[in-house]
Specification:
This protein is of the alpha/beta class. The chain is built from 14 helices and 17 strands. Helix 4 packs parallel to helix 5 (105-122) and helix 5 (105-122) packs parallel to helix 10. The chain binds L-homoserine.
Length: 432
């Protein structure tokens, strides 16, 4: 049976748009299998045809005529950002029953209800996972996975730029301006970094999250927002001294009959899981009546990570468009086989109960060397002779460098045959 074709219009070829163009082109075969149809990128609307791009698609695809591109498409992926013309273009697509994927948080936080109503009216699908927390799947869990539960609170770090800045200030005592310049150089910050620093970017995301979590319409104006521009190196150092770290937190929580939504710099104990969210990473905690506490963590910004969220929305809505529903999970098209442990490469810790006598350490080290397993650290603890393992009066703990499961097994076999080794008490994989 011939697979139906799905005409895709991409609006925008910036940091994220370029990556989406790349994935649509390079992963075409996989996408066909996953969607059950053929996604055909029919054009990429840009402001300037000659601007440099992170990924150069076929030159004939670029156009400045977004409207006619939208009119020829089945699915529109909007990655231009800003209010207009993005709003008018999305409405044009939705009103005509075309499915839309967007990553435009500012637009959705301001006009989400209008866009959703247009989609509902025409029966089109409208998804915007990329608008919140980059690659982290958070909107779909709120919208689908938790659709039968009652969310009570969402708490998170939803802006990568400010997290990168606060983390750098915390780690090296750097000054605000210095870390802002670094964040801009790394491409984390929005075109106008005020949106990041003053919390507007996080506030837009919080409004979107609150709307989905609490099934109510919230706008960016509903968010009480304070940014990090007043936070100094001294504030960060003082917090550190008291055992805290400063993070720009977004909080959406039930407050009586309403919902309180706020973004502000907050001191959190260094032992709190959110304290370990470093660099430009984001993390979102969701608390709900039945599921309890859930945590989502991942890259909150960047071209490829955000494109991953866009593509997830695209595949999902394309599949629904073609099948008329979500379908069943695809277990088969790649036909990969499960592999044996023999190729797995990892670090290991090995605990040995031994007799503390001349040459034991050397004979053990030799067995590792003979089997090609490199030792990273080695530590001997002397103790009283064990009652359960007669003669053993010391424990040696070895951590290896990365090695194969096969090499480790042969080392362990040979260690067991050494007369001074009474027991290989533990062999545990080490990650990270
Ligand atoms: N500037 C945003 C951030 C990018 O730093 O998180 C993703 O929205």
């Amino acid at each position: 049976m011939t697979k139906p074709t799905l005409k895709v219009a991409l609006l925008g070829a910036g940091t994220v748009g370029s990556q989406v163009a790349r994935i649509l082109t390079e992963d075409r075969k996989d996408l066909i299998e996953r969607i059950g149809g053929v996604p055909e990128l029919i054009g990429i609307a840009v402001r300037s045809l000659d601007a440099p791009r992170d990924y150069q698609a076929d030159a004939s695809l670029y156009t400045t005529d977004a409207d006619s591109l939208i009119d020829r498409a089945d699915v529109v992926i909007e990655l231009t950002g800003g209010m207009e013309p993005a709003r008018t273009r999305i409405l044009r697509a939705l009103n005509a029953g075309k499915h839309v994927v967007s990553g435009n948080k500012a637009l959705i936080a301001a006009h989400g209800a209008e866009l959703m109503a247009a989609a509902r009216e025409s029966g089109a699908q409208f998804s915007f996972e990329a608008a919140v927390a980059g690659a982290i799947p958070i909107l779909r869990p709120l919208r689908d996975s938790l659709a039968g539960d009652h969310v009570t609170r969402v708490l998170g770090i939803m802006n990568g730029t400010t997290n990168f800045m606060l983390d750098a200030m915390d780690s090296h005592g750097a000054a605000f301006d210095e870390v802002l310049a670094e964040a801009q150089k790394l491409g984390y910050a929005e075109a106008d970094p005020t949106a990041d620093i003053e919390g507007h970017d996080a506030a837009a995301k919080a409004a979107i999250v609150a709307s989905l979590a609490f099934h109510s319409e919230f706008h960016i104006d509903d968010v009480h927002c304070t940014g990090i521009s007043e936070i100094t190196a001294d504030d960060v150092a003082a917090a550190k001294n008291d055992g805290y770290v400063i993070k720009l937190l977004s909080v959406c929580e039930r407050d009586g009959e309403g919902v309180n939504i706020r973004v502000n710099p907050t001191l959190i104990p260094r032992t709190h899981p959110l304290a370990s969210v470093r660099d430009a990473y984001n993390a979102v905690f969701v608390e709900s009546r039945d599921a309890g506490e859930l945590m989502f963590y991942g890259p909150g910004a960047g071209g490829a990570p955000t494109a991953s969220a866009v593509m997830g929305d695209f595949v999902s809505l394309a599949r629904r468009g073609i099948l008329g529903g979500p379908g069943v999970p695809d277990y088969s098209y790649r036909g990969l086989q499960a592999t044996s442990l023999s190729n797995v490469v990892s670090r290991y810790t090995v605990g040995l109960l031994v007799k503390d006598q001349l040459g034991v350490l050397a004979s053990i080290a030799n067995k590792f060397a003979e089997n090609g397993v490199s030792i990273e650290t080695m530590h001997q603890t002397k103790h009283r002779e064990r009652e359960d393992v007669e003669g053993a009066d010391a424990t040696i703990r070895i951590v290896t460098h990365k090695t194969s499961d096969q090499k480790l097994k042969s080392t362990i076999d040979e260690l067991s045959s050494l007369s001074a080794v009474f027991d290989v008490a533990s062999v545990i994989q080490v990650e990270g």
